[in-house]
């Protein structure tokens, strides 16, 4: 959204169209479309466009309108709009009338907004308009961002400063930054946001009460202009904590009434309120279990309160026993979400969506895809990703996650035969369900560059683009982001794209090996600590001893987790001979001498990847340095500094991991490199 001046050639080709914009400001969204376009055109073409509300007889011009606008009558292309989803749009060129016209038409106001951003993106990435017409629509009804912001201004797992929403237990008054954020999100198709941490503490519990609703409504007003619906995370024990009741039992009539009244109140302030996001019976948060009820009882009670207003409940499946005894080898945290929620399939109201983390554990650099996606058949579901890099370098390391997310959405669950991808499960297509989509934990804060690491912006951008269209390739998304951010210099595009696309695999290579996960410092989760979680209550073990490592999750001899998948995936993961190398230790306990498909032994793989990971981290730095003078100096410096932190941390990871496993196994490195 830099809207840099376009090259002369583009100005010559398109300048006349963009000298005149026809748009009716029939809604707050259409007003923002007009504003965005006018300021973008002024800055790209160097001239303020003339804005008219009715289409003039003569072109050239750009016309923005919704499908029902009479100005579009008779335009052949517009007929295709009805085949597109609700926020779908078409951009086309008509040369019939004198001067010609570029039409950006949407099925809804938000569709027009997305069309406008698409048009601007084409110009900014210098693709020009030769590729028109384009027709797009998202298969995902919800494309959501979850803020984990607390009202004291802190952000749970935030690595880019303080909250842009709250400070000192209050909602900020100056909404400039929030407005900018809404623009950023809309530009990549995001249409929903929850604005407070899923761990709803004392102060935040009151966000649904009269005290805070007027201020929450002001935030909702800002997002509304950009087609983004506002949600709140709620505390399941609210009836007790702020309602003065003795219980939060979902089957209690008073409790039900209390939530209904809350809903009425909220919708008085925010008529298009999205609904509630709920973390219940998870990591010490209250929930229906306290009252001997299940998650369907809890979610349905809230859903009934919101239903008259069109609201929905997004209920998280991150439910497991976080008080496990490490000596207990039967309990397996990986099984928990499936074991809790599969028996409830079909018991949830139509306005409930289950939000499922991508993997069965917790956003590790490598995990298998949660088997719930291929299990639930009668329940709306949503994929939860983590943009904030809690376990992937905390925005000190460059770790571009789009390639990981592509694997996740493309994963075949075989729920209804081959091709039953996660993308289809969460869009609702697979099981013909009405609601669904994607959500992701945000990585932004009040740092001037939004994300701490300048290159971490690519993750936010990439998430938005992917949630709009899961079919886009990682390369397409990367290319767009790099061009939009750094311009069109081929050196820069090639270097930065190359760095981003390799970064996840580089990060994986010097951290926990072969899918085993969790070798991080407890609490803050940064940096290596092989046994940090080994004897804890969190259910996160690797079971390394002098002979081998890994978790036996097979059905025959292990926890049975592998059996939660449909065939042929269950069998694939169920045997060390067929299990993909990168997930071997997630599913199997094997000796260090076990030979991988790559030909290497497990121990040699550990040494090789850890040595190579540091070499690659250093290489990232070298590549970045070649761009000096071609990148904004402050972005260049900030990134170079972070690459130094990454190298330092990668060295620490390499040496700790290699030394630990050398001491455990007693097997030396075949290549005789230094291990301490
Ligand atoms: C992780 C994370 C927590 C977070 C939790 C969740 O465990 O470390 O900070 O609250 O996930 O997703 O609810």
Provide a concise account of the structure shown:
The chain is an alpha/beta fold. The chain has helices at 8-14, 28-45, 109-124, 176-187, 202-205, 213-224, 238-241, 253-269, 295-306, 336-341, 372-375, 402-410, 422-427, 457-468, 474-486, 490-510, 569-574, 584-587, 602-625, 633-665; strands spanning 20-23, 50-52, 61-66, 89-94, 101-106, 134-136, 142-146, 166-167, 170-171, 192-194, 229-234, 275-278, 312-316, 352-357, 381-386, 436-441, 548-549, 590-591.
Helix content: 25-40%
The mean pLDDT is 97
Counted beta strands: 18
Give me the Rg, rounded.
26 Å
Low-confidence stretches: none
Largest sheet entry: 8 strands, parallel, barrel
Number of helices: 20
Structural class by sheet pairing and helices: alpha/beta
Domain Alpha glucuronidase N-terminal: 1-119
Catalytic activity: Hydrolysis of (1->2)-alpha-D-(4-O-methyl)glucuronosyl links in the main chain of hardwood xylans
Domain Glycosyl hydrolase family 67 C-terminal: 451-673
GO molecular function, one term: hydrolase activity
